[in-house]
Hints:
There is one protein chain. The protein has helices at 14-33, 84-88, 91-103, 113-119, 135-141, 167-180, 182-192, 221-229, 237-244, 248-259, 263-281, 286-292, 298-308, 313-320; strands spanning 2-8, 40-46, 50-53, 59-62, 75-78, 106-109, 127-128, 146-147, 153-156, 159-162. It is α/β, with parallel strands linked by helices. It has two domains: 2-198, Class I glutamine amidotransferase (GATase) domain (Rossmann fold); 205-320, Arc Repressor Mutant, subunit A, CATH 1.10.10.60. Strand 3 and strand 4 (59-62) form a beta hairpin. 44% of the residues are buried.
Amino acid sequence: MREILFLSFPGAQLLDVTGPFQVFATANDLARLGGRAAPYRLRHAAGAGGAVETTSGMQLLAEPAAVLREARPHTLVVAGGDGVNAAGRDADFLDLLKTGARRAERVASVCSGALLLAAAGLLEGRRATTHWCRTAEFRRRFPAVRLEPDQIWVQDGPVWTSAGITAGIDLALALVEADEGQALARAVARQLVVFLRRPGGQSQFSPLVPEPVTAPEGGFLQLRIQATADPAADLTVPALAERAGMSLRAFSRAFLAEVGETPARWVEGMRLDAARRALEAGAASIKSVAVRSGFGDDERMRRAFLRRLGVTPEAYRSRFGNGHENRGMAAGGTRL
């Protein structure tokens, strides 16, 4: 039996704990129904133990975090949430995290919990992901970590990290599949009515949501709003730099610092989002969508979809287009 120990703190995100926790619990339920022993023992530790309040106000019961000094879990799962910053400044918490990680065979984080793994030195030189809204902060604080912000989850050796909140469910399903095989993982996904492997990565979030802005007066926010209003315009980096009244090099560096990704990558993501909305509406042809969203031709758009979302435009429309809500759903999953 593998022991899964969840580590949280005051101000943890409720779903960061309960989402993946339920995946492992359902794996236990289904294994028992099949006449097998439950594969997991589940524990939750936080602070001094007892009732720990999450960001939603709901409290979760926990063992004292000090159990990490003696426990030998197979997997240590670290939650994220608004309380991450305070936990990351707590030397005792980070010491317990390091101790628990040394004693565990596998370490995982959900959402912004990756910031805690990084603060504890557990991600140095490794690939990782985190909630998309934390990517700029993460890159600034931990440049030695190879951040992959578009991924739903990332495995680098014994360390697994997931993207924002519900991506912890995806991560837990991947862990179940690694431990017990695809059949059980697929059955758990079906029982929970989610994708075993959801199509696409964190690129499914809308680039129209402003990222954290650090430059005075919103920096490039107006430029991004204008670009979003006309995705088919000339949005090459030189053209954007000219609009901003800056040299190419200065613009590229300032944009990356403010937005957290290069101008070219942001433009591609914005155009991808425009194409997705058009495909979801369902009326226009693939070629027309490619032109109107700024890709120019359908092959270029197809390559962007495959690179960023892992699906073709045709497959995306089949899953998410109007009138197609029930197609292409893996493991009885919901339309996400």
